Amino acid sequence: MTRHALLRIGTRASALALWQARHVEAAIARQPDAPEVELVHIRTEGDQRTDVPLWTVGGKAFFTKEIDRALLAREIDIAVHSLKDLATLLEPGTELCAVLARENPSDALLTKSGALLQELPPGARVGSSSLRRRAFLARLRPDLIALELRGNVSTRVERLQSGAYDAIILATAGLTRLGLEGHITCELPLKQFPPAVSQGAIGVCVRADDLHAKRWVAPLDDRAARLATSAERALLRSVEGGCQVPLGALATLVGEELHLHASVCALDGSSLLTAEGSIAAGAANAKLLGRRLARELLAKGAQRLIADVRGVGNAVAAP
Fold first, then answer.
1. Residue of 144, 146, 237, 245 whose CA lies nearest to 194
2. What is the pTM of this model?
3. Of the listed ranges 84-88, 120-124, 173-177, 179-183, the one predicted with least confidence
């Protein structure tokens, strides 16, 4: 048997991040003559800044940049990310080598009483760390109270059960991967509550010049997930959004046609802009579709909503 050089996978140390890294490790191990793999835990800014909502902090890539810098410093060979956390403009010298088959992209509602969203009483406390989720929640139920919710997935579920919240909203994918799907009261409708760009997808980055790592990571790329997330990420990049912007989008591959639906919502839910379109499946076409819908949203006034949200964030963050 041929022995290949060790591959070091960089990952955050949260339970969900480790699940994703081990999922990649197992997929590499299934290949014939696969190399040994080692996990390297890396602490990111997002892990450290637990005292304030991340949408009040300037910058992006809170959960990824330290891992990508370790990749460029050759301290690791592979970087595993929740793709929704990865900036649309990659660190120079890195490459998104694989997007793994996507888990359910929807958001999930978890309630202490078992009530559905429309059944929650006025004034019910709903926990979420996402401006996108808060905005779409305000549009559907403006009478509910949105509260900040940080911590890993299991901690958030425990805080709901302890009575700190009446309901919380989390990604269905993370709950499913950690075996916590039994806590889900219901999945939120994708059109009314569009997910974050690339939600449910795992992205694997390597150094652009590392042919050894590419050999083992490239076979993990899933065509449908790659096309869908390429369209969504092109949309996000063109709108100039980030984790501070209440934009939701979902692309789906049906046969050889790629569909994309996107919405930008005012933080108070008072205004909603949507765009939808389709294109023949293909790598270049996916990005074209994303950029086309971004132009449509911007023409409808998306930049004004984004500016309003950033103004709120800056006001909260100011000393």
1. 245
2. 0.91
3. 84-88
Assess whether 47 carries a catalytic annotation. Answer: no
Alpha carbons 248 and 195: distance in angstroms, whole number: 5
Tell me if 37 sits within 8 A of 67, measured CB to CB: no
H/E element, 11: strand 7-11
pLDDT value of residue 22: 98
Tokens of 147: 């509260």
List of residues 6+ apart from 155 with CB closer than 8 A = none
| 107-187 CATH choice from 3.50.50.100, 3.40.190.10, 3.60.130.10, 3.40.50.300 | 3.40.190.10
Please report, for the chain, the start and end positions of each structural domain, with discontinuous segments joined by +: 1-101+201-221, 107-187, 223-319
Task: Kindly tell me if the per-residue pLDDT of 244 is higher than 90.
Answer: no
Q: Which of 85, 107, 166, 210 is catalytic?
A: 85
CATH superfamily of 1-101+201-221: Periplasmic binding protein-like II (3.40.190.10)
Sort strands 78-82 and 202-207 into parallel, antiparallel or unpaired: antiparallel
